Amino acid sequence: MTHVIFKIIHHGSSEYTAAVALRESILRKPLGLSFLPEELDAEKNHIHIAGFDGLEVVTTAVLVPESREYKMQRVAVTQNLQGLGIGSEILKFCETYAKQHGMLSIYCHARDSAVKFYLKNGYVPEGDYFDEDTLPHLKMRKVL
To answer: What pTM did the predictor assign?
Structure first.
């Protein structure tokens, strides 16, 4: 299996640019969408996490601080490495980081196609499905 090293990356860095390219290719381009400059500009105060296989960014996630919890968003794993446990590893990294920073929970808006993945990783659904980025999503939370 690929050995992935996780680290916090800085908004605007070359690593950030690579992470944005990865999440855009996995999350947006299949929907005919792309990230708008103002969306990326709004990420300046978010926590950016990337997983590296050597120098290549192979997974990424963003944590948005909200009081005593983080909203985890834009979680992506490169296509050819999906299904190998890397997604679960980045979730664990995010959860550990959140605990270390005094957060009580983490939540996300999971695409319908990812709900089973989040359930497997201990996330609990909240409320009903809603539309986001043209797809049905479900709010899911994990108490830390």
So the answer is: 0.94
